[in-house]
Design a protein that fits this description.
heterodimer, A: alpha+beta, Phosphorylase Kinase, domain 1, Transferase(Phosphotransferase), domain 1, 5 domains, 3-stranded antiparallel beta sheet, B: mainly alpha, 8 helices, disordered N terminus
Chain lengths: 779, 196
């Protein structure tokens, strides 16, 4: 054979050998004739050769005695030596792993490495790190004996494990590495094949072969460079690959690559087989492709752990483990930039127990904030730093103070806690308000905080502390902060507008206030360069709900709003939220018609509203809030029909009561349901009086009173206790039972809230109650 | 051990000369290792339990320990170790070839050498025709000395793929391919299949 073709045959043979089956056949087939024949012949010879010339795979035969141990089989071969499964010869039958230094590499340097591994293992006592049992020398070859770990490889194990157990196990690995680091030992060769998982599911870290003891920084500086012996390139850190010193960050990077492999099911840095310079470039520069279908938090943790720059990685293996734990338990992870909504989402996703933790967190945060305010005032020269810290703490406080209570709102039995939290929040805001006058950004934050507390105190959409006067006070304080700060940015003005828009819900329709409100809102909106469409729509809304405005004007406003919303609904006719919105507007319009005794029009609007809400039921039959709305619609329709003297109104009211009874029975935890049932019972009772059904009316009103007593919710509902007593008084009057009537009038007067800012219709009734109670006294 | 100490000085010197580029030093070193291997085999075979094979690997390793010592100059650099194992492999090859020739001579009634180095005793397949292998290996050496060297290290010094790759400073994958190539070529040569 010519030298040239010899070389070609050798190369082609090697390439053919690295392929299998059809792939190999296709490769050989494509070779030029002479070379093809020769390669085929050699491949056949290779197959036929069996173990021809193959040296024994190990240097120690089965049965060889090494100190107090007898060799059973070779289980692994590494750069430095061989690992055997062996058995202790003391009759205990204890199996061990015996690692013996290869004589080929025998040198002072290698022996130093070997001794070091022994020394390192002896230092480490951790349940997840393989234990050193013994050591010695055999025929001039050093060996040491470790506990025998029966288990599967990490990656094989991970393939059939669930995500959660994968992470739990990996966290154990991190903690083991952390314990090594705390013993001042860097592993430097962390890779899946160095981690076994036992049958009990515990990971074991093996092979501290090239570990470095950190406590000899001077003497060990050279060996910190990892050229001899080489680490496994696919798991090397960028700094390791560049031949720089490999410290703790290197181990953390390797851990990140292992995490990647567990999650992705593939090697993060597939560099084996690449030319060395290409492999090093890849490790130093290329980020592994993102793992598909990974939750954002987990992806962020992974990114942070395999950051190319050591300073961007986690500070310790424990930090990595802790972030994974936080991820598993649904807490915000440190790998994600902290944002208010991010934290709020996390908070919302967690269970109720976690919210109790948030309450404790508030205490700590408040204490911290008080400190920051103090610092803020004291250290003017460090203002920028203090400001930054303050900002961070403030964001945290926002999440805890203003989000946690909303999460708690739906949880039964938390009203005391929520009230306490609102008080804490107010105290905090008050301190802020007096400290931050000069700072508009801070003023904006404080004003927002106040508005959020007001929402906790009272709103019409979700559970609240039922404290409208408190809510109003909070909104007024917020406006005061905004006024003093005098900001003029759109953000600032929009917050002001939001504040004013929230007023009608807490002002109980005081006409004078409502007008003043509208005026201020117009002023604020006029300062905006452009009024956003949504804001404009809400301003109309504010005007429309103002009962002191002329009815014709209000009817026009509602019609305009209904048109606006119908146009928006059109492309999205099946959107339940929009259907509900539109229904509410029609009910409002019905209310205006009703107050003008335009009954036919009122009933028409109410029927439309009912149809819209029934459409929602059709889409979501299990939606109890839709059922609540439908019961309200029936009630409203029933009320309007009854007031117009139509008996069918009673049937609608009965339907409304039936639905609400159902809702109370279905969810005993829903605190609003009994309150709403009580309202409807009172209303049905009131209308029944029209047809003189006194007995039934009395029973219904008493049932409503029992429900109310159980609720212990003070406030302004249209038929609060005083209203129900008034009904009983009027029933007693019809019965001709003056004594009973007077008793009820007195009770009604006593039940009147101390501070009243009632709407007009209520004022009339209250006037009646006071007068009657007075009458009864004089009798 | 007196014998080891006595012979370690000249061997280390020879290996150092060889490292400095004196090719003749290699040829001088091989007989030193050769003597040591024979001596070792005799001693070890006497001491080992009956039926226990020694193996080229163990022999060579033992020789290495004795000749180069734990702290000998040859022990410190990879290159020096490569040189030693090269010499040891060559020496072991001669041990086995001499034994095979002696056995042939005995069969023909020409001699009565003590067959202290039985092929079985040192773990080599008794059916292997060492003389044919020796010839084929010479042939391979003229065609491709690098691949021939791999065969010597693997077969006669009993080095593992990892060890041989480290000594020859190449990747394990490359060494594995080259070893397979050389082995297939030798097998075909010895089993008499025509080359083309």
């Amino acid at each position: 054979m010519e030298a040239q073709s010899w070389e070609q045959v050798r190369q082609a043979f090697g390439l053919a050998l690295s392929r299998a089956g059809a792939d190999r056949e296709a490769y050989v087939e494509a070779l030029p004739g002479g070379i093809r024949r020769e390669v085929r012949s050699l491949l056949a010879a290779d197959e036929a050769a069996g173990d021809f010339l193959e040296p024994p795979s190990s240097t120690l035969p089965r049965g060889a005695r090494i100190g107090r141990y007898e060799v059973l089989e070779l289980v692994g071969r590494g750069g430095m030596g061989e690992v055997y499964r062996a058995v202790r010869l003391d009759g205990s039958g204890q199996q061990v792993a015996l690692k013996i230094l290869s004589p080929v590499f025998r040198s002072q340097e290698m022996e130093r490495y070997f001794r070091r591994e022994r020394q390192v293992l002896a230092q480490l006592a951790h349940p997840n790190i393989v234990r050193l049992l013994d050591s010695g020398e055999h025929s001039g070859r050093q060996y040491f004996v470790m506990e025998w770990v029966e288990g599967s490889g990490l990656i094989e194990w991970a393939r059939s494990a669930e995500r959660n157990s994968q992470l739990v196990l990996f966290e154990q690995v991190c903690r083991a590495v952390q314990s090594a680091h705390q013993s001042l030992v860097v592993h430097r060769d962390l890779k899946p094949s160095n981690i076994l998982v036992t049958a009990d599911g515990d990971p074991k870290l093996l092979d501290f072969g090239i570990a470095r003891l950190l406590e000899f920084p001077g003497g060990d500086a050279d060996s910190a460079r990892t050229n001899v012996p080489a680490m496994s390139l696919p798991y090397a850190s960028p700094e390791q690959a560049r031949g720089l010193a490999a410290g703790i960050p290197s181990d953390l990077y390797s851990l990140g690559l292992i995490l990647y492999e567990i999650l992705a099911g593939r090697v993060a840095q597939p560099v084996s087989g690449l030319p060395l310079d290409e492999a090093i470039r890849k490790i130093a520069v290329d980020d592994p492709p993102p793992v598909a279908n990974l939750p954002a938090d987990l992806a962020a943790i992974l990114r942070k752990s395999i950051a190319k720059e050591p300073e961007k990685r986690y500070a310790s293996a424990l930090d990595l483990a802790e972030d994974l734990r936080r991820y598993r338990e649904g807490y915000p992870v440190h790998a994600q930039p902290p944002g208010f909504w991010y934290r709020a989402r996390k908070l919302a996703a967690r269970n109720r127990l976690a919210l109790a933790v948030a309450v404790v967190g508030i205490l700590a945060t408040l204490a911290a904030l008080t400190g920051f305010v103090y610092q803020y005032q004291r250290a003017r020269e460090e203002k920028a730093l203090a400001q930054r810290r303050f900002e961070a703490a403030r964001k945290m406080a926002q999440a805890l103070l203003f989000d946690a209570p909303n999460q708690l709102a739906g949880v039964p039995g938390t009203i005391g806690t929520r009230r306490w939290m609102a008080e804490q929040a107010l105290g905090y805001l008050e301190r802020m308000a007096s400290d931050v006058q000069q700072d508009r950004g801070m003023a904006l934050a404080v004003a927002r905080g106040y508005r959020q507390v007001a929402y906790m105190q009272y709103n019409v959409n979700s559970p609240n502390l039922n404290d409208p006067p408190g809510a109003l006070a909070s909104l007024e304080k917020a406006e005061e902060v905004l006024r003093r700060a005098g900001g003029a940015s759109p953000e600032f003005l929009e917050e002001w507008a939001e504040n004013l828009l929230a007023r009608p819900y807490v002002q109980m329709n005081r006409a004078a206030d409502a007008l003043a409100n509208e005026q201020r809102l117009s002023d604020v909106a006029a300062r905006l360069p452009r009024i956003p469409e949504e804001l404009q729509e809400r301003i109309w809304h504010l005007h429309a709900v103002n009962e002191s405005r002329a009815p014709e004007e209000r009817i026009a406003l509602w019609n305009r709003l209904i048109d606006y919303h119908e146009a928006r609904l059109a492309p999205d006719a099946k959107n339940p939220a929009r259907l509900r919105n539109l229904a509410i507007m029609r009910k409002n319009l019905a209310g205006v018609f009703f107050s003008q005794k335009r009954m036919a029009e009122a009933v028409e609007q109410s029927r439309s509203a009912l149809a819209l809400d029934l459409a929602r039921i059709e889409m979501q039959p299990g939606d109890s809030s839709a059922w609540m709305d439908v019961s309200f619609d029936y009630g409203l329709l029933g009320q309007q029909l009854a007031e117009s003297g139509k008996r069918e109104g009673i049937d609608y009211l009965r339907k409304a009561v039936a639905i609400r009874r159902d809702l109370v029975a279905k969810d005993p935890q829903d605190r609003r349901a009994p309150e709403r049932l009580a309202w409807m019972l009172g209303e049905l009772g009131r209308q029944l009086l029209r047809w003189d059904r006194r007995g039934e009316a009395r029973n219904l009103v008493r049932e409503a009173m029992d429900l109310r007593r159980g609720l212990n919710a003070p406030g302004f509902s249209q038929n609060s206790m005083f209203d129900l007593h008034r009904l009983l008084a009027r029933i007693a009057e019809r019965d001709g039972d003056r004594a009973a009537a007077c008793r009820e009038w007195r009770l009604s007067a006593e039940a009147l809230p101390a501070s009243l800012a009632p709407a007009l219709s209520q004022a009339l009734r209250i006037e009646e109650i006071r007068r009657k109670a007075e009458d009864c006294k004089s009798n | 051990m007196a014998a080891g100490d006595a012979s370690s000085e000249p061997l280390n010197e020879l290996l150092q000369r060889w490292q400095r580029g004196d090719r003749a030093a290699f040829d001088e070193a091989v007989p030193v290792v050769y003597e040591e291997l024979r001596r070792l085999a005799r001693v070890l075979l006497r001491n080992e339990r009956a039926g226990h094979t020694l193996g080229c690997t163990a022999l060579v390793h033992e020789a290495y320990l004795r000749l180069c010592g734990a702290s000998g100059a040859a022990g410190e650099s990879l290159q020096a170790r490569a040189h030693f194992f090269g010499a040891a492999a060559r020496a072991m090859r001669r041990v086995l070839v001499d034994h095979a020739r002696a056995r042939k001579a005995v069969k023909r009634g020409e001699g009565h050498t003590m067959l202290e180095l039985d092929q079985v005793a040192i773990g080599v397949d008794p059916n292997l025709d060492v003389l044919a292998l020796d010839l084929a290996l010479d042939e391979l050496n003229t065609l491709d000395p690098e691949r021939a060297r791999i065969v010597e290290l693997r077969f006669f010094a009993g080095l593992s793929l990892e060890e041989a790759a480290a000594l020859l400073d190449c990747s394990e994958a490359t060494l594995k391919r080259d070893w397979a190539f050389a082995r297939a070529w030798l097998y075909r040569r010895i089993t008499g299949e025509p080359e083309k």
